[in-house]
Amino acid sequence: MVDKVRRTPRRDRPSTPADLAGLDQADAQLTRSVAEMEVLAAAISHDLKNPLATVTGCVHLLEHLDQADRVGPEYDRLLRTVGDAASSMRILIDDLLAY
């Protein structure tokens, strides 16, 4: 014989118009938060891509310098630029993690 299980109303489901209004407000807030996060992610992505493009470009130039040009002011300038861009990325990432 199978015992019948008495069902009780679930407390986690909205049952009144006020509950539904609260869910609508929460949903709207969540939608706004997601939109804000998308804007923030786009800005962060852009800010990180700029120094990365600088590093990549400088490394490409350094790879294609003639052996004789690998010592001198241009070489040193490119190395400083790579270091500065990498430092910029590190600061951006640290600031992001602190947020």
Q: Would you give an account of this structure?
A:
The chain is mainly α and 99 residues long. It is built from two helices and no strands. Helix 1 (17-63) packs antiparallel against helix 2 (73-98). It is rod-shaped and about 80 Å long. 1% of the residues are buried.
Q: Structural class given helices, strands, pairing?
A: mainly alpha
Report low-confidence residues grouped into runs of 5 or more: none
Classify the beta-strand content into a percent band.
under 5%
Shape: rod-shaped
Please give the largest β-sheet: none
Radius of gyration, whole Å = 28 Å
Rounded mean pLDDT is: 80
Number of strands: 0
- Number of DSSP helical runs: 2
Helicity level, as a percent range?
over 70%
What distance separates the N and C termini?
60 Å
Strand-and-helix sequence, N→C? HH
Structure in a nutshell:
This protein is mainly alpha-helical and 99 residues long. It has helices at 17-63, 73-98.
List key phrases describing it.
99 residues; mainly alpha; rod-shaped
Topology:
Blueprint: H1 17-63, H2 73-98
